[in-house]
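Cross-posted from the bioinformatics board.
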Amino acid sequence: MTSATPPVPGGSDPAELDQDPGATLTPGFRGRARPEGVTLPPGQYAEEGFPVLSAGPTPNVSPATWSFAVTNEAGATKSWTWAELMALPQEAPTVDIHCVTRWSKFGTRWRGVSLDVLLAEVESTADFAMVGSYGGYTTNLPVADLLGGKAWIAHTFDGAPLHPEHGGPARLLVPHLYFWKSAKWVRSLTLMPTDRPGFWEKLGYHDLGDPWREQRYQGD
Amino acid sequence: MTEAEARGARLGDRYAVPSGWQVATLVGRRAESASAATLVLDVQGWPGHLAGQHLDLRLTAPDGYRAERSYSLASGPAEPGTGRVEVTVQRVRDGEVSPYLVDQFPLGSAIEVRGPIGGWFVWDPVRDAGTPVLLVAGGSGLVPVMAMVRARREAGDRTPFRLIYSVRTPEDRLYTDELERLAARGDGFDASTIFTRAVSLTALRGPRRLTDSELASWGWPAELEPRVYICGPTGFVEAVSRMVVAQGHDPARVRTERFGPAAG
């Protein structure tokens, strides 16, 4: 060890680092010009492209056979076909998205149906939901993060049908949480009285995933 | 991956990410190609890792600005307490972090690390031995896959492994000598390398992308039900995973890791 900075158990002390961070850590590193006019959550960088991250092969899902089902804690199910989804009131949110792999993309334009519409008539007192996808992916979210104009079933990105690599024909869109919560190829939502971990959450990722609190991993 | 599997106990003990950042020291750097280097980091109290996991690095500029990036661990599964881990970094042109790490980051200096992270794109010689493995890597997607090859070797494991490595040119290859040595041992590890942009004058195969028939002849038939790991740029992973599934492999046995058009 030639560094003057000793390892700090439980993480570094921001106050200490702020005094003269460059002197002990990564000497000579300057980084890019800081983005102007936008605020990045901690640890994120601005990305112009649209990277793809998935745990397995991209499933082929046709709108002809697509459906989306909501099941409450009593086991009652309500479902929508593609045509039924399209017949519902549509919204066109423009939102910033933040991936846990550190890219953020500003001003993305989507079209889809608000979860407020889909969940309006569902009888439930559950506080949590498990979202399921074609291909077997799952992710858990609090119901409070799906309601109140914060979440959509999105089928259109930037004016075009959502590409299969990005979750087409339809994905969940929950832009205020890290993007692994926005399940691609979405097919179901199961309401749960108690929280249970989904796919990445079982592998150590956070149950909520708020990028502004940098909740990347369990315990953050 | 099913709803049923999500029920019950969290695997958190196995996959929990150590909380907080810790300070590591750069104790070695090896050039792997003209544009990639392996960084040897001394991390006190490193808890050990599984082959295929990654770590996060955090860099701090003089004004307090911080950049964080994830890099695949290249070294095999370290025993807890050894404190040495390796990452291989490919220089991304105009990248914010990778050119600094490959060319500038001085030996002996400090960097913050967090990890290990990830529990899906992993191969564990204890848990997974015996089932044939097909590894398909594009470019620097070789790094986590190499950790699996090294884990197998370190464990003295003889699980049949086949690696198909797609890389732009012979000069871009990583771990060339080590892969040749490992394949020459005749203990069930085979490696095939293809070049997509340029080949040597004596090459029998022109520069082109991996074909369906090459994948079929250098990989495993679906009937063997191998575990399949595919890692590389998104286009590569999409193309190869489509081929793999079309050849009859169950998508549930195919694990992918994609490097998007990252800012490096």
